[in-house]
Amino acid sequence: MSNKQASFHQSVERNFDKAANLLDLPKGLLDQIKAPNAIYQMRYPVKIGNSYQVIEAYRVQHSHHRLPTKGGIRFSHLVNQDEVVALASLMTYKCALVDVPFGGAKGGVKVSPRAYTPEQLERITRRYTVELVRKNFIGPGTDVPAPDYGTGSREMAWILDTYQQLNVGEIDAIACVTGKPVNQNGINGRTEATGRGVFYGLKEALSYADDAKAMGLEPGIEGKTMVIQGLGNVGYYTGIISQEEGGAKVVGVSEIEGTIVNPNGIDIKKLFKYRKDKGTIIGFPGTKKLEVREDWVGIECDILVPAALESQIHKKNAKQVKAKIIAEAANGPVTADAEEILLKKGVVILPDMYLNAGGVTVSYFEWLKNLSHMRFGRMEKRFNASQFTKLVNLVERSTGKSVSSRERTFLTRGGDEIDLVRSGLEETMITAYGQIREIYKRRRKVEDLRTAAFINAINKVASDYTSLGVFP
Ligand code: NAD
């Protein structure tokens, strides 16, 4: 291991190579899977105040083996081409892993959203969309963006509106972007999807008693202590869902302004409101501030959840980790060098390409909903409810006992869109974990879950290329 820190992109490529070396696939095929297929780098002017600013932005389509390509758009002052390529490649593997039929892509706009007014951000977003349209880098069948770090449903609504203005009469235009507000052709459950997927993934990983025992833990998520870095979309929903539905205890939170701890638990909903009102998490009742923000890595807990940015756990701080599990809610939060140290320590890493795939999974559901022009559940909800009612009536008649009206309401309800989205997401996370675990347990020389996930993803993409006849 050299003294130089590996970049995020280098880490992703190292992880890819580690898995590829265990596969018997032609070099040319592996090179094709690894290479970014199209990189669009743009510079465009936007009027900010009384002058013009030249905005640097990117869209990378990593793999065209399946179309459309798919991936979020990041707004951050740290955006650069290397980072966007790494993120786009992770999208390819992520989609393959969870059987979402897209190639990977990612967008990046080098701006710090906090430095602009909403009107300025709207101009930046709309002009970015125009640039994408001009080069055919957006469209329901070509490339479908979504939210990522620094963006949300508001930006997706601006993208949709701009695209529609430039493509009047295109019947499927609403499927050009996902993560839209629900009242603008979005889907219920998309906002929370990545965090909910993290929760389902953790729950699944902890459901195997022998695996939990090997980590020195009891099975199940209930009572597990958790530390979260980043209280944005992914960190926030991971925290509240793990607390409210899983019974986990969040004992530490790290944000830009610092890190706070409370071994008795921090109520994430209340903390979020506190931050909204006061502009900081520091001073939240019952918590203590750590002197050094970065020391969140070494807080005593069962599960460490990095949910901010890449390369947060690196070779200089990996030794501090006391957690048994690192749940990679963010993309690339653990560098390849840090991973070597952590695996030696026996820390289990649930890899990003699996654990945060909930966002793209529900984006896929949104895209399907947009193409069908109908919300999920509309056809079957009442039919199912009536069948369930008949079933409950039959049971009551044949047993002579009756259920309470509360039980009846619960048992006879037909599924709404949100129920179906959650069910589809949970199914996706359970199935994908089963496949990764199977490879990890059964294949010789596979030392960790990330390598198992890469093997599964690479094999699926390779099989697509082979069936296309590109690589006989
Ligand atoms: P977000 O912008 O909503 O939130 C990120 C949060 O991290 C912000 O509150 C920010 O202040 C905080 N943060 C930044 N640097 C920090 C630091 N050094 N220490 C502590 N906190 C810090 O972004 P998000 O959408 O939640 O994305 C977070 C991560 O999850 C990214 O890696 C992203 O690529 C990944 N991800 C997001 C989605 C999605 O659907 N939004 C899907 C998959 C993966």
Briefly say what this structure is.
The protein is α/β, with parallel strands linked by helices and 472 residues long.
Write a structural description.
With 472 residues, the protein is of the alpha/beta class. Among the domains are: 38-184, Rossmann fold, CATH 3.40.50.10860; 194-355, Rossmann fold. It has helices at residues 8-20, 27-34, 81-97, 118-134, 153-166, 193-205, 209-214, 233-244, 268-278, 336-345, 352-355, 358-372, 381-399, 405-411, 417-442, 449-467, and strands spanning 38-48, 51-61, 69-75, 103-109, 143-147, 225-229, 249-255, 258-261, 288-289, 303-306, 325-327, 348-350. A 7-stranded mixed sheet has the order 9-8-7-6-10-11-12, with helices on both faces. A 5-stranded mixed sheet has the order 1-2-4-3-5. Strand 11 (325-327), helix 10 (336-345) and strand 12 (348-350) form a beta-alpha-beta unit. The longest helix has 26 residues, at 417-442. The relative contact order is 0.13. The model has no long low-confidence stretch (mean pLDDT 96). It binds nicotinamide-adenine-dinucleotide. The site of nicotinamide-adenine-dinucleotide has 24 residues, from helix 8 and strand 7.
List its salient traits.
472 residues, alpha/beta, Rossmann fold, seven-stranded mixed beta sheet, five-stranded mixed beta sheet, 16 helices, 12 strands, globular, binds nicotinamide-adenine-dinucleotide
Kindly state the percentage of residues in helix.
40-55%
Secondary-structure arrangement, i.e. CATH architecture of the domain at 194-355: 3-Layer(aba) Sandwich
Radius of gyration: 23 Å
Compute the separation of the termini in Å. 38 Å
Helix and strand composition category: alpha/beta
Shape: globular
> What's the helix count?
16
Per the CATH scheme, the topology name of the domain at 194-355 is Rossmann fold
Please report the total strand number as a whole number.
Answer: 12
The CATH superfamily of the domain at 194-355 appears as NAD(P)-binding Rossmann-like Domain
Biggest sheet layout: 7 strands, mixed
- Unreliable residue stretches: none
What is the assembly state of the chains in this entry? single chain
CATH class of the domain at 194-355: Alpha Beta
Small molecules bound: nicotinamide-adenine-dinucleotide
* Neighbour order of strands in the largest sheet: 9-8-7-6-10-11-12
Element-by-element helix/strand order? HHEEEHEHEHHHEHEEHEEEHEHHHHHH
β-strand percent reads 5-15%
Mean pLDDT, as a whole number? 96
